[in-house]
Amino acid sequence: MGYGSELKRILDKKHIKVSELARETGISPTTIYSSIQRDSSIRYDYALKISEYLNISAKKICGNVPAGYHKKDEDLDLIIDSYRHLDKASKERLLKYIKKLSS
């Protein structure tokens, strides 16, 4: 089973439709459907949004999670900085999520 299949399994288990996931995360439904149909990994930044909404580990749906991405606080700034396009509130949510994973 690949990452797309795993995402589909999680959505089914939680009774969440792709349209709801897309609306809540701001990710195009086409992108989500494509990942599920191809049974492929989803982009890392999208995986973080999805995993936060679904309350799962990004590693379940993304094959491109940087090794040790949540292990050191000093690394968090590098990760957050790589998402310069995010507004302050989104960066804070991302930081909170990453810290939650490391605890």
Question: Which descriptors would you attach to this protein?
Answer:
103 residues, 62% helix, mainly alpha
Topology (SSEs and partners):
Layout lengths: L2 H11 L4 H8 L3 H10 L5 H11 L18 H9 L6 H15 L1
Explain what this protein looks like in three dimensions.
The chain has 103 residues and is an all-alpha fold. The protein is built from 6 helices and no strands. The longest helix is centred in the C-terminal third of the chain and has 15 residues. The radius of gyration is 13 Å and the shape is globular. About 5% of the residues have low confidence.
- How many beta-strand runs? 0
- Secondary-structure-based class equals mainly alpha
Which whole number gives the mean pLDDT? Answer: 80
Largest sheet: none
Distance between the first and last residues' Cα:
28 Å
Strand content: under 5%
Net shape: globular
Low-confidence stretches: 70-74
Helical content class: 55-70%
Number of helices: 6
Q: What is the rounded Rg?
A: 13 Å
Strand/helix succession: HHHHHH
